[in-house]
């Protein structure tokens, strides 16, 4: 889509004062997908020369904001030798996007849009990612990905602030992971996406819920909980108004699928075996159906 209100495109390597109507331009797949009548100038990041993705000496993985989805998927498939490597491909495949979008869409753009179904948010939040943010004055701050997105389309970014990179800790890359995704359509946008990660160092378990909620919800347990403990923790973590509602799924359905998938990843990653079923299970008739009605 042509952005006919944009009057100038500036190279981000030239430091100039930020002004109303400016926007960072990464891959542009969202920016050019719909009208942006408030924009007057784009600040192009494509020539910044940041290394797309690299393993640091301490084993952590640093992903530049300008790294494309296609680049990240190739790196995980060919270079990353870690138990969590398959999760990268699973999250990249969770995009509602063609190969053309894969080659343009950036990890940073997906995070900064803050959309509930953003699969790069799912990936980096589940692996305990940390965002490096840089202000117009050069000041930097670090924010956990789970805290970076605060609501549907909302982040902690200040005016003109830039997401420089996301770092995934080495310990998270050594985790065994489990992935579940639900959509109303075969190739539709995610309605619920749940990722479990079991830390082999201490046996702790994290369960991260995205797409179903307006913000990432990351639960940490020192040891895998039983079914009741997981359900109680998830109930307490997500407010009644935090289940997302749009054409891709009703809140009730999203909630049901999130709880169902959270239990599935708990069972898949639980090294201690299954816990006994409750003596008086919930009657089948009381359980919500998987398919919503509108």
From TrEMBL:
<dbReference type="InterPro" id="IPR016166">
    <property type="entry name" value="FAD-bd_PCMH"/>
</dbReference>
<protein>
    <submittedName>
        <fullName>FAD-binding molybdopterin dehydrogenase</fullName>
    </submittedName>
</protein>
<dbReference type="InterPro" id="IPR016169">
    <property type="entry name" value="FAD-bd_PCMH_sub2"/>
</dbReference>
<feature type="region of interest" description="Disordered">
    <location>
        <begin position="272"/>
        <end position="294"/>
    </location>
</feature>
<dbReference type="InterPro" id="IPR051312">
    <property type="entry name" value="Diverse_Substr_Oxidored"/>
</dbReference>
<dbReference type="InterPro" id="IPR002346">
    <property type="entry name" value="Mopterin_DH_FAD-bd"/>
</dbReference>
<dbReference type="InterPro" id="IPR036318">
    <property type="entry name" value="FAD-bd_PCMH-like_sf"/>
</dbReference>
<feature type="domain" description="FAD-binding PCMH-type">
    <location>
        <begin position="1"/>
        <end position="173"/>
    </location>
</feature>
<dbReference type="Pfam" id="PF00941">
    <property type="entry name" value="FAD_binding_5"/>
</dbReference>
